[in-house]
Amino acid sequence: MYWNGPGVSRRTRKRNFIIWKRLQLGCVEEENGRLDKAAKHWIIATKLGDDIALSSLRVCYTRGLVEKDDYASS
């Protein structure tokens, strides 16, 4: 999947940027010790189709930081 470039529409670039920012915000929140907020960002990114956020969310679920309903919905 291409994130940018001449063959990617403006709408797709905007969507990909939002996914990337949500993933990054989740990582920043994790580094600051706010895993509940990190999980919320990763849930949003996962619903938009990001696989990396899904794997981060899976780790939070196995540690008991995310509810089963939140993990299942994403």
Structural account:
With 74 residues, the protein is mainly α. Helix content is 72%, strand content 0%. The protein is built from four helices and no strands. The longest helix has 22 residues, at 10-31. The protein is elongated, with a radius of gyration of 13 Å. It starts with 9 loop residues before the first helix and ends with a helix. The model has no long low-confidence stretch (mean pLDDT 84).
Reported for the largest beta sheet, the result is: none
Strand content: under 5%
Choose one word for the global shape: elongated
Helix segment tally: 4
The CA-CA distance between the termini, in Å, is 20 Å
Q: What is the number of E strands?
A: 0
Overall mean confidence score, pLDDT: 84
Structural class by helix and strand composition:
mainly alpha
Task: Lay out the secondary structure.
Elements: H1 10-31, H2 35-47, H3 51-62, H4 68-73
Helix pairs in contact: 1-2, 2-3
In short:
The protein has 74 residues and is mainly alpha-helical. 72% of the residues lie in helices and 0% in strands. Helix 2 (35-47) packs across helix 3 (51-62).
Keywords for this structure?
74 residues; elongated; single chain; mainly alpha
